[in-house]
């Protein structure tokens, strides 16, 4: 091919569009399930840097909740302390707290909400709307 042919720039349909930025890979410490979810979210949504941190925290909260559930399934809801008194296992609190954190992070990321209305009221939760 001649140097003149190489100098010809082919028109592109992407004129004026920003160059495609590769999606960040999920953090290495996440489970395979969380990594798949991370990639699904990044396919569907355009997230900025601070959103990626929230997404990572949501993945970690989900994994912590799952680990607590596994421990509860193995060891039960209670244990007997040294004096023979039944006590609630700490995994119960870990599971509850992780569920709350996960739900708040998903809401903060606005992954399943419509555009906010122009009112001062907080956005309605879809599942609580009347028919």
Automatic annotation (TrEMBL):
Pfam families reported for this sequence: Terminase_4
Region annotation Disordered: residue ranges?
Answer: 1-29
Organism superkingdom: Bacteria
Under the heading InterPro entries, the entry gives:
Phage_term_ssu_P27
Name recorded for this polypeptide: P27 family phage terminase small subunit
Please give the organism: Mesorhizobium calcicola
């Amino acid at each position: 091919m001649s140097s003149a042919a190489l100098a010809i720039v082919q028109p592109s349909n992407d004129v004026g569009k920003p160059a495609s930025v590769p999606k960040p890979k999920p953090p290495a410490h996440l489970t395979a399930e969380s990594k798949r979810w991370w990639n699904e979210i990044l396919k569907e949504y355009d997230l900025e840097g601070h959103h990626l941190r929230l997404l990572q925290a949501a993945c970690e909260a989900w994994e912590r909740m799952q680990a607590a559930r596994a421990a509860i399934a193995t060891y039960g809801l209670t244990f007997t302390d040294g004096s023979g008194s039944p006590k609630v296992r700490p995994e119960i609190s870990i599971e509850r707290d992780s569920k709350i954190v996960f739900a708040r992070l998903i809401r903060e990321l606005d992954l399943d909400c419509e555009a906010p209305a122009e009112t001062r009221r907080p956005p309605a939760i879809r599942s609580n709307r009347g028919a």
